[in-house]
Design a protein that fits this description.
7 strands, four-stranded antiparallel sheet, single chain, three-stranded antiparallel sheet, about 210 residues
Length: about 210
Amino acid sequence: MKRTTLANNLILATLLISGCGYNIQNSPTAWVDAYKVEISYTEEGASYSLCKSFGCDRRSSIQFDADELDQVRQHFSPPATTAEKERLKIATGIGLFEKITGPKLRTFGDQAANNTSFISGSNQLDCVAESLNTTRYLLILQQMNLLHFHRPGGNVHRGPFTLNAPHNSATIVQLDNQQAFAVDSWFGANAEPAWITPVDNWLTGADPEE
């Protein structure tokens, strides 16, 4: 996977070294900021820079209109009553975000995994781009006060140190017991629910088919 900045190389090296575990104190903002998956503010509102290519080498700045944000709010209404139920809402909520952003980023034809037989005119995402966009969506949910049992966590990586192929995922951390969960949108096509599983399970090389 191509890296375009020294900061990205340093992050990758850190992830490789720490591939045998996960630190729940990892910052989600450090990961997205290093790839310039940023927020800027204008008179029109917030503009979000999101990935639209392998390795997040290309990004587009988009805005969410009031109707789109209302869709997200409605998806989380009524609020979940348990952490487990909130994770189900988060999984499908990530799919909703992808449905909204697909036409804006031209990622509407993104296929599961690294399938390159994607729809003409659409952009295919790898796990780096997927994890970055998912982390940004989780941060938006936090900003909207829609998460009551979880907070966004930092990126998690598995690779040679876990005897697996290199792979990345966004995470959430349950507030009451500090358990971390991978929120992996790479395994599904655009707008499909993210796969959520305990990070300890994800690090073994598990996938949704198991």
